Amino acid sequence: xxxxxxxxxxxxxxxxxxxxxxxxxxxxxxxxxFTHTHLWQMSRPxxxxxxxxxxxxxxxxxxxxxxxxxxxxxxxxxTFCIYVPDEIALAAGVLPIPLCGGSGWxxxxxxxxxPRDICPLVRSTFGxxxxxxxxxxxxxxxxxxxxxxxxxxxxxxxxxIPSLELPQKKNPIDRDLWxxxxxxxxxxxxxxxxxxxxxxxxxxxxxLVNRKRKLLQQINELRKLEEPPISxxxxxxxxxxxxxxxxxxxxxxxxxxxxxxxxxxxxxISAYPAPGPRVMFAGSPAPMGFAKVHYIVESAGxxxxxxxxxxxxxxxxxxxxxxASSIEDMLEAIADRYFRIDCACFSPxxxxxxxxxxxxxxxxxxxxxxxxxxxxxxxDIEAKALDKVLGxxxxxxxxxxxxxGEQDEEQIRVRVEAFREMITGGxxxxxx
Length: 432
Ligand code: BJ8
Fold this sequence. Notes:
Elements lengths: L5 H10 L4 H19 L9 H10 L3 H11 L3 E5 L6 H6 L2 E5 L21 H11 L11 E5 L3 H10 L3 E2 L7 H22 L5 H23 L10 H11 L4 H21 L10 E6 L8 H8 L3 E5 L5 H4 L10 H13 L10 H13 L4 E7 L3 H16 L4 E6 L6 H15 L9
Parallel strand pairs: 1-2, 1-3, 3-4, 5-6, 5-7, 7-8
Double cubane cluster binds next to α6, α7 and α16.
């Protein structure tokens, strides 16, 4: 919840050395986009106000909390991928701060360092840093990248950012490499704080992060119902906020939301005013600030009932096994859990094919919308393989390649509406 006053916030941003004029522009843009994409919905759960506030607090009271934490001697690490094991950082007393940008406003500021033709996620993240509008820029001991796609890998090189080495395959030798990286991350976190991680603190943080993922699972389980009590747009916002909000406060807010959703189901309250085809959102992540495709799909009368991306199922599907008692076994369990993530950076990525097929059945989807961020070749090319798998079970797909801008909204809408017509028995959609 936003607990700081406008004066507090201005002081905070000035103390952090931010560019206040440009930052005002960024905030105005975030606010305008959020109002446009989310506030037209007629049947939102009341507790979504907690997540709306958290989105706005991400540049206000959340920043103040982290400043306070650091003043008290706490450490933090900036991350860019859901492969970084939060459990280990938290057990060491290090706050992980996910830094992926989802706003279209700062992308051009990345041009002073990067070519224009790279993915908007990378451009938005570094555009914010370069324009002096990222409040988290100085709030971390160091940023930690990972060797996933080429855009990210080369960005780390250029900026001198260290990275976790992710294997590209899933053979036993790759699992060994990943395990050694997980152990290295543990050492790095211990060096940062000067304290060894105890078995007790690691067990506590495993339970804490599992609790977060279980709550997200409960919310998303309810989207399987004929009449989901929460829209795809709001479920996305919850996932986006999950990456920024203090974990305990997030778990509390999610608990309230789950209660309300269960009660809405009992009362027969749907998130949607009219019937519509059930679709899966799949592909590149949709970080906080980016909800364009969800907005277009749902305002065109379809229902996004499941998100397959890193701002969806890929983030909460797997839990860390809580059965281990020694620190070594816990680290093995963490390595196992993260190694199951089915990012398109892996090749072959057969797990993703199997997971999507399973999810398609579980959520009884009528169609799938690939959302590919421009120049995200992994998800773009992999869309073909997924189409083949889904084609065999008669599920149509639509591929939307886009960036964080608003210029293509109407073009996408035309294609999305044609897709809806095709699913409901009308015209044929074009898959570009
Ligand atoms: S586990 S999806 S968070 S790497 S930056 S791959 S959009 S071209 S973010 Fe990701 Fe981890 Fe994988 Fe998930 Fe494409 Fe852009 Fe690369 Fe991206």
